[in-house]
Amino acid sequence: MSRQNNFDIIRLLAALQVAFFHAKGHLKVAESPVEVFIDFFKNFPGVPIFFTVSGFLIYQSYARNSQNLRQYVVNRALRIYPGLWVCLAATVLLLFVFRIIDLSALMRLPFGLWLLAQLTFFQFFTPDLLRGWGVGTPNGALWTVSVELQFYALVPLVFWLLDRPFGAARPSKWLVVAALFGLSVLSYAFLNTQPPDSLLAKLGAIAVLPYLYCFLVGIVFAVWWPALRPFIEGKFWGWLVGYVAFCLVFSNGLGLYKAHYWPNAYGLVANVLLGVVTLSGAYSATSLSQKLLRGFDVSYGVYIYQMLIINTYVAMGRVGSYQFLFEVIVLSAVCGALSWHFVERKALGAKQLFVGKQRRSS
């Protein structure tokens, strides 16, 4: 499998899609003459794209380190936590600046629980103490980090199910994938029947199982790459045209589904097709990402900082204009670049230091 691919630019586009529509909604930007064209890009939701890419790349990462679980854990932690913790420090600073908290709040249990949640894997938790800033939660987009971390923990089990008991028997592997896919679909179908404000619905919304089908699309291509590669490599435009046609007919035309993380049957097909489009884009014109970004992977930083900037703009009353939306996108990109250059890249470099220490101790 070639290491030359377009995943950096795909993740950046996905992060910008999320930031754009979050900003458009929270800043209450008025509709423009090209609103129909803008709304069409809701058919390319960034979060399912992230999950598919994670399924593809993280499964491979674990497969390479399946005999060294510690290295796998270290790799995943270095990718997520350094950038996240620096973002948390920026969040606390902004909460002080906007007088949502003061020094006395640092000693209160709700703030301590929130801080612990942000440092670990409960990023979706927000106490009432912090709901007075911006849109009501300091960084609501981080619920997906919790889902990602659950997926990281689940990968060893999925790998064992696919690799250990059944060997190379392809039908058995397909059976496992089908069972997991069906379990994911049934879980979000069941959760959709629950009252939105119920505890079960709220917990389900931040659990990995309803979104597992997106990760599985990536896993399928990672496991059966030699067989599936000819169908996606260099075929991006064909898959993209097919996906756009599907959206135009079944979503925009017939109104049979809307882009959603927990879709109906038509939306499920759309999200699977979007996953294939994503992976095909990664392996078509594979030099594009390197030419444009030069290895500068700013997507994670864009994603984790966009809601901080949106909350700041909302708190300042800078809403209702596409100018403010544009500024939010630019500032998110700047924060993403700074995060990558000063934090994330240096943290990822520590992987080699860890490997070296392991070798010297063995």
Low-confidence stretches: none
Helix count equals: 15
Tell me the number of structural domains.
1
Rg (C-alpha, Å): 21 Å
What is the molecular shape? globular
What's the order of the H and E elements?
HHHHHHHHHHHHHHH
Quaternary structure state of the chains depicted = single chain
- Termini separation comes to 30 Å
Characterization of this structure:
With 362 residues, the protein is mainly α. It has one domain (7-361). It contains 15 helices and no strands. The chain has helices at residues 7-26, 35-40, 46-64, 69-97, 109-119, 143-163, 170-191, 199-205, 212-223, 225-232, 236-253, 265-282, 288-293, 299-316, 322-361. Helix 3 (46-64) crosses helix 6, helix 3 crosses helix 12 (265-282) and helix 7 runs antiparallel to helix 9. The chain is globular. The mean pLDDT is 93.
How is this structure best summarized?
Helices cover 70% and strands 0% of the residues. It has 362 residues and is an all-alpha fold. It has one domain (7-361).
SSE inventory with pairings:
Layout: H1 7-26, H2 35-40, H3 46-64, H4 69-97, H5 109-119, H6 143-163, H7 170-191, H8 199-205, H9 212-223, H10 225-232, H11 236-253, H12 265-282, H13 288-293, H14 299-316, H15 322-361
Keywords, please?
70% helix; mainly alpha
